[in-house]
Specification:
This protein is an alpha+beta fold. It is built from two helices and five strands. The chain has one domain.
Length: 185
């Protein structure tokens, strides 16, 4: 009987090779890690986009609030009333001369006071609300003149609120509050 000699290195090399099952498991593991990595990158990118939208929305709100606060508390020319007077057009802010002229004003896309569109603002909207409030509670609306008005500028992008500024204006001056709105998912 003839004996076959086993070469010592051959058996070791054979045990180092991957089986089909090991390859399949490796592919599943690597695929799962790739999906997790891509999901993390996508969430990070969306987070950066939200930060950018918040910053741009805040700048748009600040620009409009600054414009409003430069106006007088009460109508300087015509008989004082709440809202726009007959000499002030509804769409063009160039004639606005007191803070309550901005009652329920809205623009999409945002525009400068002279009516020209602010570049690269498609999808953005700015709205303003002005209310008379009581001195005892700034959240309580008043139907009569109290010497105190709240002005709120809200900015949204693709109908999602991104920024809001609120100012309390009195016939003696104004105070600015910055209110951050949570972003919708």
């Amino acid at each position: 009987m003839k004996r076959h000699r086993i070469v010592p290195g051959i058996r070791r090399r054979a045990s180092r090779a991957f089986s089909l099952i090991e390859v399949a498991i490796s592919i599943v593991i690597v695929g799962g890690m790739l999906v997790a990595a891509l999901t993390t990158v996508a969430q990070s990118s969306r987070g950066l986009q939200r930060i950018s939208e918040k910053a741009r929305g805040t700048m748009l709100a600040q620009q409009l609030m600054s414009e409003i606060l430069q106006q007088t508390y009460e109508e300087p020319v015509d008989t004082p009333g709440f809202g726009r007077e007959s000499s002030e057009s509804g769409g063009d802010r160039a004639d606005y001369d007191d803070v309550d002229d901005y009652v329920d004003w809205s623009s999409s896309p945002p525009e400068y006071k002279d009516g020209t569109e602010i570049p690269d603002t498609d999808g953005w909207r700015r709205t303003v609300s002005v209310q008379r409030v009581t001195s005892g509670n700034l959240l309580t609306q008043s139907g009569i003149e109290t010497g105190i008005k709240t002005i709120a500028v809200r900015v949204s992008y693709n109908d999602v609120p991104v920024a809001e500024l609120v100012s309390v204006r009195t016939d003696a001056g104004s105070v600015l509050f910055d209110i951050a709105l949570p972003l919708s998912q």
